[in-house]
């Protein structure tokens, strides 16, 4: 049977209702190994099989500031009792504290599928019930999402259709400089679903066409080996300084594209004054940049020459903006491309997030595909997504956000569905303290992960293998049928089924379901897609699609507004959707906000934590907490592929041999990674793929604190977010700064505690 996931499409083999194996489809040129590992997790001991309520909450103990959340036992209850508890609590909170007191979490990927989208289902349910406080932006790209509309205009994600595609790069480009690399492991995934992986072959085509790649990253393997990339190890969080040094070299040598800057941008003169040091007495020249970045002056000078004399493309990866002042490398990369002379030329110029998902650089978009219909939220309040702990700890406090002043609401009920805040958020000990403050936390979960263990009411949900749906990935030109492979495990139900029962108790079942069953919804959304696309799409009937498992969508031809090629050709006829109609090297709007941590043009701000900072005396290693190769975020950490990557049950941490030798660390040892925020155990892997002074520990290992609820307690499993800082990039975006963390590492000499990440809490009936 057909299976569609964020990491690819597969065939599920089932015998008498038992999932036997999952196999890649034969037409996928680079199938992800995550899929077959789903079999291990399908029926493991961590499955949530029945509704469960935290014992202290059920017994009426003080619900706010109850430090037992995360450490308490659970009582399994009937579905009828569970629906009563949740519906009654929603009524109570709304009547006593207002709709704003309900937080509709569900930040995260959940599972592929147009109908069974956990976030869409939750938000539809809560909006119909009166509204909820929502979150804005993403942990992945918050700084980018806020700053790019000021600089190049348009929707925060519109740049995806405005930058060169891989086939254009192969045909027209000679040099790609990738700040933050373009790790092929990240291209395993595509939000919404994925039919065939194409990025690897497209990258190979670029190399075969003679395109040269430069990897500006602390990690050599951030670029695939077959690209033969030149590696420039850069001190983490100094990409902006490197770009400024390149820009200064272009400027003083007269290598910059004066014509494009004059016609197609605004504010270059003010930025140039900063570059040469007229504003602060510090020229941002190659020697200055070399002292900050660790890249030599000669290399910086040569890179400036190559960018301006060759057909070049500047790429910036998402990771570089998840840091202190993360807006700056995004903004500066656009400015550098505008100076280099390739902006707005075929296959050249600027782009972001290549290889972050298989869709990026593969296609500019895809036609309309219907999904679960949204309902307008009656509550206008929202919080920046990474400020959830601040909101819980400091309700009523005001913060800046993109020129606005926001008052953080008092949240009394958290409803989380389809995401894992104890994976995404930074400084998990601080989040633990914050998580004790609301009255009630309701979670839909398939497994007893950390978020489930830190909830008050846990409702068991079916996995994507246990429900009917169809998938359509971001920019992916396919629809993939997702017929139910097997019945839901235990007493688990779909999110839609649960919300239907709750809506019935609360008096709006018909509005929520529109009188359709789940399979009727799936059929309706497919037929709506088919009707909207019309005869040109030639989509088969639903029944034929359901039998054949895949349907091809027509190519998306746009129009794609905000083209840099059109801007270069005639900025008067084809202005960008910015206040000036041009690239805003200097933004009058951002400047008017008066932020001391994000000025009117890109500039260098010293990070709070970095290898040249004072804190490096105590914690001399910079932690790179990047995306894992063995799972999607924390999804299927209990799957076979992720489990197979562990070292003695712990997440692997990569250490440069020089740093390891000075600490007596050998490969395979269990080490303790620590700073003032917390500590975790991990399995040592020695490799010169990471530069000296840097360690790499991927995100997504299910957090496994020795003493849940106790701030600072050791994590047994290797979750780097016990170490990362929960502070915003800046007042502009309030995005996360996960990659601004200094740590140290030592051999762990005490008896190893058992890993209990995949062990359910104590359950009573």
Automatic annotation (TrEMBL):
Entry-linked InterPro entries: Asp_de-COase-like_dom_sf, CT_DMSOR/BSOR/TMAOR, Molybdopterin_N, MoPterin_dinucl-bd_dom, Mopterin_OxRdtase, Prok_Mopterin_Oxidored
Entry's Gene Ontology BP terms: anaerobic respiration
Positions of the Molybdopterin oxidoreductase domain: 47-504
SUPFAM superfamilies: ADC-like, Formate dehydrogenase/DMSO reductase, domains 1-3
GO cellular component, one term: outer membrane-bounded periplasmic space
Protein keywords: Metal-binding, Molybdenum, Oxidoreductase
Molybdopterin dinucleotide-binding domain ranges (all copies): 621-738
Names of required cofactors: Mo-bis(molybdopterin guanine dinucleotide)
Residues annotated as domain Molybdopterin oxidoreductase N-terminal: 4-39
Gene Ontology MF terms: electron transfer activity; molybdenum ion binding; molybdopterin cofactor binding; oxidoreductase activity
Family: Belongs to the prokaryotic molybdopterin-containing oxidoreductase family.
Protein name, as recorded: Biotin transporter BioY
Organism: Streptomyces subrutilus
């Amino acid at each position: 049977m057909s299976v569609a996931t964020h990491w690819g499409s597969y065939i599920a083999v089932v015998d008498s209702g038992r999932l036997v194996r999952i196999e890649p489809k034969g037409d996928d040129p680079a199938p992800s190994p995550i899929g077959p590992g789903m079999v291990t997790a399908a029926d493991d001991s961590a499955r949530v099989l029945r509704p469960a309520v935290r014992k202290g909450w059920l017994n009426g103990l003080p619900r706010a500031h109850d430090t037992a959340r995360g450490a308490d036992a659970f009582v399994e209850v009937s579905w009828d009792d569970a629906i009563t508890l949740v519906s009654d609590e929603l009524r109570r909170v709304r009547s006593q504290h207002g709709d704003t007191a309900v937080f509709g979490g569900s930040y995260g990927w959940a599972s592929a599928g147009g109908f069974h989208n956990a976030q869409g289902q939750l938000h539809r349910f809560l909006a119909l019930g009166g509204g909820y406080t929502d979150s804005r932006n993403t942990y992945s790209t918050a700084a980018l999402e806020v700053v790019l509309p000021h600089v190049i205009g348009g929707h925060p994600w519109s740049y995806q259709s405005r930058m060169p595609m891989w086939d254009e790069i192969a045909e027209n480009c000679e040099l790609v400089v990738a700040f933050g690399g373009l790790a092929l492991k990240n291209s395993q995934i595509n939000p919404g679903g994925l039919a065939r992986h194409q990025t690897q072959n497209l990258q190979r085509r670029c190399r075969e066409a003679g395109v040269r790649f430069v990897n500006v990253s602390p990690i050599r393997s951030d670029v695939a080996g077959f690209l033969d990339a030149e590696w420039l190890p850069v001190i983490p969080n100094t990409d902006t300084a490197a770009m400024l040094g390149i820009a200064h070299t272009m400027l003083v040598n007269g290598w910059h594209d004066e014509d494009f800057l004059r016609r197609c941008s605004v504010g270059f003169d003010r930025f140039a004054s900063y570059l040469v040091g007229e504003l602060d007495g510090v020229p941002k020249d190659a020697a200055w940049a070399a002292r900050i970045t660790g890249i030599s002056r000669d290399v910086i000078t040569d890179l400036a020459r190559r960018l301006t004399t060759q057909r070049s493309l500047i790429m910036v990866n998402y990771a570089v903006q998840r840091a202190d002042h993360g807006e700056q490398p995004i903004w500066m990369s656009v400015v550098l491309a505008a100076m280099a002379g390739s902006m707005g030329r075929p296959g050249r110029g600027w782009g972001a997030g290549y290889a972050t998902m298989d869709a990026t650089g593969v296609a500019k978009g895809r036609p309309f595909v219907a999904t679960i219909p949204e309902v307008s939220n009656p509550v206008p309040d929202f919080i920046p997504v990474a400020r959830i702990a601040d909101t819980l700890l400091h309700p009523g406090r005001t913060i800046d956000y993109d020129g606005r002043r926001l008052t953080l609401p008092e949240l009394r009920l958290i409803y989380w569905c389809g995401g894992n805040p104890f994976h995404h958020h930074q400084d998990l000990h601080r989040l633990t303290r914050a998580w004790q403050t609301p009255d009630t936390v309701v979670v839909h979960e398939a497994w007893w992960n950390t978020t489930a263990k830190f909830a008050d009411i846990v409702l068991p949900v079916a996995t994507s293998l246990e429900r009917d749906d169809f998938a359509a990935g971001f920019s992916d030109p396919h629809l993939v049928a997702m017929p139910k492979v097997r019945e839901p495990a235990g007493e688990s139900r779909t999110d839609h089924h649960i919300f239907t029962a709750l809506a019935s108790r609360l008096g709006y079942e018909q509005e929520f379901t529109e009188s359709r069953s789940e399979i009727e919804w799936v059929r309706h959304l497919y037929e709506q897609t088919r009707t909207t696309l019309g005869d040109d799409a030639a989509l088969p009937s639903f029944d034929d699609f359901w039998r054949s498992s895949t349907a091809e969508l027509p190519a998306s031809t746009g129009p794609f507004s905000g083209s840099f090629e059109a801007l270069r050709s005639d900025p008067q006829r084809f202005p960008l959707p910015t206040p000036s109609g041009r690239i805003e090297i200097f933004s009058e709007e951002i400047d008017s906000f008066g932020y001391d941590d994000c000025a009117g043009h890109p500039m260098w701000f010293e990070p709070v934590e970095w290898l040249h900072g004072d804190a490096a005396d105590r914690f001399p290693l910079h932690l790179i907490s990047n995306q894992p190769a063995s799972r999607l975020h924390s999804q299927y950490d209990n799957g076979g592929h992720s489990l197979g990557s562990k070292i003695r049950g712990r997440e692997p941490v990569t250490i440069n041999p020089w740093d390891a030798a000075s600490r007596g660390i050998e490969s395979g040892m269990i080490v303790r990674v620590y700073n003032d925020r917390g500590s975790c155990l991990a399995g040592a892997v020695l490799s010169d793929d990471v530069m000296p002074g840097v360690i790499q520990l991927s995100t997504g290992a299910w957090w496994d604190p020795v003493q849940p609820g106790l701030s600072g307690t050791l994590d047994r499993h290797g979750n780097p977010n016990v170490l990362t800082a929960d502070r915003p990039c800046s007042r502009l975006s309030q995005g996360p700064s996960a990659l601004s963390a200094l740590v140290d590492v030592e051999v762990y000499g005490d008896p190893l505690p058992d890993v209990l990440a995949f062990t359910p809490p104590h359950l009573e009936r």
